[in-house]
Design brief:
A five-stranded parallel sheet has the order 5-4-3-6-7. Strands 1-2 form a two-stranded antiparallel ribbon. The protein is built from seven helices and seven strands, in the order ββαααβαβαββαβα.
C-alpha cells in the first residue's frame, strides 16, 4: 500500500532588498484532505507572480541546475529527434532545455500563470515547443512519446495516481518515464540552496558539483 502526503498550505512571495525573489510555503490550518483537490492546487499555483517565474530562468534555479537537471539528462542520453513530454512543465525551463538538445517537446501545465509564461517564452524563442494547458490527471490524447518526464511534479498533485497512469500510458513501447521527487528528509534544504546560490553568484563562480546519486 502506498502512502502520499500533500502540502496543504499557501505560497507567499517576498522581494528582498538585494532583489532576490523568494517563495515560502505557509501551512493553512483551514485546509483539510477533502478540500485539497487538484483544482485547489492548480488555483494556488496559478497565483504565482511573473517575477518569481522569471527568476527561475534559464534552468529552474540552484537545485535544478546542480542536482536534478544533470541526473535527468544523464538518464535521457541522446535526445536529438526524440519526442518528449514534459509533464507538469511549470514555467517551461525544462522544455526549453530539452528543445535546445534537439528534442520535439510537448509541455503540459494546468496553472494559468505558469502556462502563460511558458507560452510567452516560446513566442519569443520559437523553439517549436507545443504547450497544452491541462491537468495531468485528465491528460488529453497527445500521441505517444519516447520519454515522459515528471520533474518535481507528482508530489504537488493531490490526486496523483491518475496523473502517473496518464504519463505511463503516453509512452511508446519501451519508452522512458523519469520522475523526480523530494525525499522528505531534504525538504528543509530550500533556504540553504537559496543562500548557496546567492553566495556563488556574488563570488562569480559556480558551486562545486555534488555527487550524482541516481542509479
Amino acid at each position: 500500500m502506498g502512502v502520499a502526503a500533500a502540502w496543504t498550505g499557501q505560497a507567499t512571495f517576498a522581494l528582498s532588498s538585494n532583489g532576490t525573489l523568494r517563495a515560502s510555503l505557509v501551512p493553512s490550518s483551514g485546509v483539510d484532505g477533502a478540500s485539497w483537490t487538484n483544482e485547489a492546487a492548480i488555483a494556488r499555483w496559478s497565483a504565482t507572480p511573473r517575477e518569481f517565474l522569471a527568476s527561475l530562468d534559464p534552468d529552474g534555479g540552484f537545485a535544478k541546475r546542480y542536482l536534478i537537471n544533470p541526473t535527468v539528462f544523464r538518464l535521457l542520453g541522446d535526445i536529438d529527434g526524440k519526442r518528449i513530454l514534459d509533464a507538469g512543465c511549470g514555467q517551461g525551463y525544462l522544455s526549453r532545455l530539452l528543445a535546445e538538445r534537439g528534442a520535439t517537446v510537448v509541455g503540459v501545465e494546468p496553472a494559468k500563470s505558469l502556462f502563460d509564461y511558458a507560452l510567452e517564452r516560446e513566442l519569443e524563442l520559437g523553439q517549436g515547443i507545443r504547450y497544452v494547458q491541462a491537468d495531468l490527471a485528465t491528460l488529453p490524447d497527445l500521441g505517444r512519446f519516447d520519454a515522459v518526464i515528471a520533474s518535481m511534479v507528482l508530489c504537488a498533485i493531490p490526486n496523483w495516481p491518475p496523473a502517473m497512469r496518464a504519463c505511463v500510458e503516453a509512452l511508446v513501447a519501451g519508452g522512458l518515464f523519469i520522475v523526480t521527487l523530494n525525499h522528505p528528509c531534504f525538504e528543509g534544504l530550500a533556504d540553504g540552496c537559496s543562500r548557496a546560490g546567492r553566495q556563488d553568484r556574488r563570488r562569480g563562480r559556480a558551486p562545486a558539483r555534488g555527487r550524482n546519486v541516481a542509479t
